[in-house]
Amino acid sequence: MIQDPISITVPLELVGKTVLAVMRVAVPGESWSKLRQRLERLQVSVNGAVCENEAHRVAVGDEIILHTRPVELPKQSDVQILFIDPHLVVVAKPSGMMTHRRPEERTWSAEKKGLHPSLEEAVASLIARRSVESGQRARNSHPRVPVLRIVHRLDRDTSGLLVLARSPEAEEGLIGQFRRHTAHRVYWTIVHGHPAEETIESNLVRDRGDGRRGSINNPKVGQRAVTHVRPLEDLGAYSLVECQLETGRTNQIRIHLSERGHLVCGDVKYRQPFAAKMIDDQSHAPRLALHAAELGFVHPISGEELQFRMPLPQDLAAFLDHLRFQAHSNHATRQ
Description:
15 strands; 4-stranded antiparallel β-sheet; 3 domains; Pseudouridine synthase; single chain; 26% strand; 11-stranded mixed β-sheet; alpha+beta; 7 helices; Structural Genomics Hypothetical 15.5 Kd Protein In mrcA-pckA Intergenic Region, Chain A; 335 residues
């Protein structure tokens, strides 16, 4: 019986095997029928997308997660448009939704794409619907889906603020701000332990030696990554932490905090720092406890400074309240 989520990064020797066969290797004590039930109950994901097909063939580096409960799939209606003009759109992304499709996902059937909408597709559809509802296009005409341009990304399981460009000029201007690290990006996260206020700087590589991204000691290899960490609240065994990005590498905050021994609650992927003991996550987080709470940039066309803030979504807010209550109760018991 699986008590905690299990994360499997497919090694070279398992390439071409079915997802069911890889699951059997990862959980040898569980029967074939039980493993098939997990697929049927939407408790297995491959690279973040729910997998129901036991015959799906895996590739090297694929991330397979066996969840303890069915994966809740975000819908297009879960996306919020917070600001829009002819050049850009700022949105609130729900957890569980990819920013844009991986190359292998672009050939999915329309039915599967509908089950797993990308943020890019969802926002384009919402904008097209708005144009019809506002009378900009005839109601009986087919709405033209606008072209959106990705200028930065959020991990699939991270919620929060993101900006997409709607014109080539805005795309160029926004990418320049992210490249020069002048855009303001602040994340809130709930982690194990009590991180110090510090700036973490390292070079990140795609494979630290076990198929996962991580830091490396060689300064000539990898991409420079800088995260400014500031504790906000002591939650007993956990902490609410603010992380300000100077750079924006893939999984940067999760890697930096995990390597310091402060796993982001609900993070299955980085529970085991390289060549170190696995961190036991008993937080019971509803999902990855990471949220893009603040976003600021200069409008690439008007020059206006834009600042956006988004509170924790309901699932993380409830989780935070639970940890506060738990910490208070434990403190009272010790008195």
